[in-house]
Write a structure and sequence with these properties.
Helices cover 60% and strands 1% of the residues. It has twelve helices and two strands, in the order βαβααααααααααα. Helix 8 (225-246) crosses helix 9 (248-269), helix 8 packs parallel to helix 10 (278-294) and helix 10 runs antiparallel to helix 11 (296-323). The protein is flat.
Length: 357
């Protein structure tokens, strides 16, 4: 086999030019190293493509066969700079086609992925529909069985109740977030005292129907560091229990409604300005007491002990409020009433259900 190369403007580095030495590789002549290269420029018509016009200065590969000439041929070819063959003529002719093939392949892959996603979503909708049907059927059978044993057993839908895992107060709990919010607001009060005047409960303005935002803003304001510490301790003690039993959404609703209810009662009964979260905290106390009372048959002796502790806490705070004129007992009472009402409206009512087999 013959290796045919075209080097239009090539001159031998060994000084032989284009002459044909006619020797063989390894001969003892000054052209011995160019013999192999000179063979490429033989005078025979079939040795060189007559269509080549010599306009391109790059080396063009016409055939890729093993060269003749043994070691000398290998040395001569290894010294040639053929880098243009790799990223020049061949790639200019194959690059666009390759890019188009890659584009078509990526389009097909994306279409297949979209089809699989659509199929998966359809199967998930079918599964959810079938699951809801089975759930309604099971709850209906629960009601049919338990309503015969307990006429007061509620109608479906039902949900399983469990107390949330006990967590330390911090950023992971809603109680902890309210705790940190109260501290941040107290810091702003210390830096900008006007905040206290703008957010405190004003009975005259509330009763006139003006600045009704003052029913909520006092819940997050405090009158001093001692006031903040006392309410923070009470919030930590009660908030965690209510959050575990009610869940975070119902805890937040109970806390806010109780605080607003406490400020409404205080605005009606007391003309003095007031700030503090104690009304909302009393609402949590009332909600948890109501929760234990409604489900006393399930909690038993433990529930009774907790209710006794809550009654003692309420009594101590009422006595302290009566002996200290700066404490707003009307706000505490209104918050407690609001918490009891929220526990009856949205608080958990637990039942022990017999499961049909």
């Amino acid at each position: 086999p013959v290796v045919r190369w075209g080097f239009p403007n090539w001159k031998s580095p060994f000084g032989c030019g284009r002459k044909s030495c006619g020797g063989i590789a390894g001969a003892d002549s000054e052209c011995d190293r160019s013999d192999v290269l000179d063979e490429f420029y033989c005078e025979e018509d079939d040795c060189f493509d007559s269509g080549y016009d010599g306009s391109d200065d790059e080396a063009i590969l016409w055939n890729s066969y093993l060269p003749r000439g043994g070691t000398a041929a290998g040395v001569a070819l290894s010294r040639l700079n053929l880098s243009g063959l790799r990223n020049g003529w061949l790639e200019r002719r194959t690059g666009p086609n390759r890019n188009r093939r890659k584009g078509r392949l990526s389009t097909k892959v994306s279409e297949k992925v979209q089809q699989l996603e659509i199929i998966q979503q359809k199967k998930m909708r079918q599964f959810r529909k079938a699951f809801r049907g089975k759930q309604r059927q099971f709850q209906s059978s629960l009601y049919n069985l338990n309503s015969r044993l307990n006429p007061s057993f509620p109608k479906p839908p039902y949900s399983l109740w469990r107390m949330d895992d006990e967590q330390a107060i911090g950023k992971t709990t809603l109680t902890g977030k309210i705790f940190l919010l109260n501290i941040a607001m107290f810091g702003l009060q210390a830096m900008y005292p006007r905040i206290t005047a703008l957010g405190a409960k004003r009975s005259d303005l509330i009763m006139e129907g003006r600045q009704l935002y003052r029913l909520l803003t006092p819940v997050f304001l405090h009158g001093g560091i001692g006031h903040l510490m006392a309410n923070s301790y009470s919030l930590k003690s009660m908030g965690i229990n209510v959050e575990r039993a009610f869940g975070q959404p119902r805890l937040l609703a109970t806390y806010l409604v109780s605080g607003i209810m406490g400020n409404i009662v205080s605005a009606i009964q007391s003309p003095n300005p007031a700030v503090g979260a104690s009304g909302a905290i009393f609402g949590l106390v009332g909600a948890y007491y109501t929760f234990l009372s409604r489900n006393g048959d399930l909690f038993g002796y433990s529930g009774q002990m907790q209710k006794s502790a809550l009654i003692e806490t309420i009594g101590i705070n009422l006595v302290m409020g009566m002996t200290n004129p700066i404490i707003d007992n009307w706000g505490h009472a209104g918050g407690f009433i609001g918490g009891v009402g929220m526990a009856y409206l949205i608080g958990p009512k637990l039942y022990v259900a017999r499961v049909p087999l």
